């Protein structure tokens, strides 16, 4: 007889305690393979597909789309044939960022307990003896008694019937099949659809308009910005800069063989050079506010528009990359943001942010700092403007630079010095050669 395996939401890393169900990729009654993705969830930092380490028949799904599921709470149960449909897990293996969360190391850790069907009690996994060597152990123990733990699998004649039921919100488990041995036929689903004559009740009217709940990434962004606004005494200074020579340098670089260099890559290189000159700005205030933590490496965040809204991917150790390498990494992360494929690790850990809001066609901004970072450089659009150049009026490519900083970390002199140095590098990019 098959036994039921319960798969719980794994630890997704980065201190996350739960995730929101975006969509189910399987349904009750479907046969799945080992390590097949079963659900797409949204954390405060990314959207990820969660694979199930069991193969067999899906017997239950826990959580509706939009519902929050805690780490360790049940996701699915699968009816597995004895000795089949399980992926063994090697003890003492480090847990991946997005792993299965069904086994713990054999020494020094606790083991998960799993539950069966409604009313059955969870059974603990027996701990190995101290003398037992590290070995391959089953991910989850079976629920005893096995027969009582196996819920009935919904018999359906074809995938088309399941699809029709799913599209119309019909619970197959609640239907009585008219076919042989209770097999659910297409006519059974059609009758259930026809029986739903009453239209759904309209949403309650709200005097001030529709209320859209803050969930997932949007909620995390709101909480982080609110915290930054309340905790950080931020100030902003700005300056106009003639970017004509910087744009000419870009055209010169891109006229030679090799990867194309973006304006963002050049600005990122200027940021790393400026932070080497003003290292106190690559820092953050400690959680208790008693000190300032100086960061030895520049983990450069930059604003990127994605399917889930504006996100801030992070280029690790940006100071150690060449301009071409910076461009390649910026391009990779931008594409990942556009498709929603970035991992939580790629969206956290920044020490300084470059905000190129000029891509939205605006000149200036006074942004909120990306907590707990202490500074952010903003770059407006680069546009042709009349400009006094070498004693005469000329049309030049001009941009506005803004610099927002935590006043606890530095005073206006340091902030002004940083911004002026950045502006000088934009206007005279040859200055960068002195720093490389």
Give a verbal description of the structure.
The structure is a single chain. By secondary structure, this protein is an alpha+beta fold. Helix content is 22%, strand content 24%. Helix 5 packs across helix 7. The chain is elongated and about 95 Å long. About 15% of the residues have low confidence. Keywords: Acyltransferase, Lipoyl, Transferase. GO terms for molecular function: acyltransferase activity.
Question: Any chance you could write out the topology, listing elements then pairs?
Answer:
Layout: E1 3-8, E2 18-24, E3 31-32, E4 36-42, E5 47-52, E6 56-61, E7 68-70, E8 74-80, E9 89-90, E10 136-137, H1 159-167, H2 186-194, H3 216-231, E11 234-242, H4 244-254, H5 263-277, E12 283-285, E13 292-294, E14 300-302, E15 304-306, E16 309-311, E17 314-315, H6 323-339, E18 352-355, E19 375-379, E20 383-389, E21 392-406, H7 412-427, H8 432-435
Parallel strand pairs: 14-18, 18-19
Antiparallel strand pairs: 1-8, 2-4, 2-7, 3-6, 4-5, 6-8, 9-10, 11-21, 12-13, 14-17, 15-16, 19-21, 20-21
Region (Disordered): 102-129
EC number: 2.3.1.-
Enzyme class: transferase
Sum this structure up briefly.
The chain has 436 residues and is an alpha+beta fold. 22% of the residues lie in helices and 24% in strands.
Low-confidence sequence ranges: 89-152
Shape: elongated
Strand content bin: 15-25%
What is the helix fraction of residues, given as a range? 10-25%
* Main β sheet profile: 7 strands, mixed
User: What is the name of the CATH topology of the largest domain?
Assistant: Chloramphenicol Acetyltransferase
């Amino acid at each position: 007889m098959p036994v039921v395996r319960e798969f719980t939401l794994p630890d997704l890393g980065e201190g996350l305690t739960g995730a929101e169900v975006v969509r189910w990729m399987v349904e009750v009654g479907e046969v799945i393979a080992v390590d097949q993705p079963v659900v797409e969830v949204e954390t405060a930092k990314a959207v990820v597909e969660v694979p199930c380490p069991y193969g067999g028949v899906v017997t239950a799904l826990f959580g509706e789309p939009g519902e929050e599921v805690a780490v360790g709470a049940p996701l699915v149960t699968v009816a597995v044939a004895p000795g089949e449909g399980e992926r063994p897990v090697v003890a003492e293996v480090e847990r991946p960022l997005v792993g299965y969360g069904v086994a713990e190391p054999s020494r020094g850790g606790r083991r998960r307990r799993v539950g069966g069907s409604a009313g059955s009690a969870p059974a603990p996994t027996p701990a190995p003896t101290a003398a037992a060597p590290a070995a391959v152990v089953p991910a989850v123990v079976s629920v005893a008694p096995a027969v009582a733990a196996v819920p009935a699998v919904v018999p359906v004649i074809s995938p088309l019937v399941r699809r029709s039921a799913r599209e119309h919100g019909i619970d197959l488990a609640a239907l009585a099949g008219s076919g042989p041995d209770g097999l659910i036929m297409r006519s059974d689903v059609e009758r259930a659809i026809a029986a739903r004559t009453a239209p759904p009740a309209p949403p309650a009217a709200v005097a001030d308009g529709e209320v859209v709940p803050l969930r997932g990434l949007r909620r995390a962004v709101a909480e982080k910005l609110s915290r930054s606004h309340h905790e950080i005494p931020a100030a902003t200074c700005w300056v106009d800069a003639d970017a004509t020579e910087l744009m000419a340098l870009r055209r010169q670089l891109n006229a030679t063989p090799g990867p194309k260099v973006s304006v963002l890559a050049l600005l990122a290189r200027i940021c790393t050079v400026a932070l080497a000159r003003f290292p106190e700005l690559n820092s953050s205030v400690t959680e208790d506010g008693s000190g300032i933590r100086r960061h030895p490496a520049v983990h450069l965040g930059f604003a990127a528009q994605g399917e889930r809204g504006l996100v801030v991917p992070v280029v690790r150790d940006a100071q150690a990359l060449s301009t071409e390498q910076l461009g390649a990494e910026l391009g990779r992360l931008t594409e990942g943001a556009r498709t929603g494929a970035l991992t939580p690790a790629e969206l956290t850990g920044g020490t300084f942010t470059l905000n190129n809001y000029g891509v939205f066609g605006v000149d200036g901004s006074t942004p909120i700092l990306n907590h707990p970072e202490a500074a952010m450089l903003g770059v407006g659009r680069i546009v042709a403007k009349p400009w006094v150049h070498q004693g005469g009026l000329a049309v030049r490519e001009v941009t506005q630079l803004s610099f927002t900083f935590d006043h606890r970390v530095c005073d206006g002199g340091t902030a002004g010095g940083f911004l002026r140095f950045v502006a000088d590098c934009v206007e005279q990019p040859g200055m960068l050669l002195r720093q490389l």
